[in-house]
Write a structure and sequence with these properties.
By secondary structure, the chain is of the alpha/beta class. It has a single domain, classed as Rossmann fold (3-Layer(aba) Sandwich). Helix content is 39%, strand content 25%. The protein contains four helices and six strands, in the order βαβαβαβββα. 31% of the residues are buried.
Length: 116
Amino acid sequence: MGEGPKRTRLLMANEPRAYREVIAEAVRDLRPDVEIMTVEPVEIDDSIAGFRPDMVICSVATETVKKSVLVWVELYPEFSQQSVISVKGETSQVEEIQLADLLAVVDRARQLLERS
């Protein structure tokens, strides 16, 4: 019997923690097929090795994130108003990113996963 489609894995390691938890809950509600793990930012690299996410939302994209993850979002790096989105190595900046923007990136990660 064949397996169903692979679930998109999202690792969340952004600050502050309350913001991380609210975003995770919203994504769980609006994209129930996405598997989400939340961790403290200092645990991001170890969590990537164990969880093997398709997408990461973080405050600081480490070298491990940049090299290992297909899609990542750096939320408000250094407290700026701009967030950085990277999809397959192509980066763009978004001013004052909203939940709808994050959901669009989650959907993009899912599409990439389905094609691979």
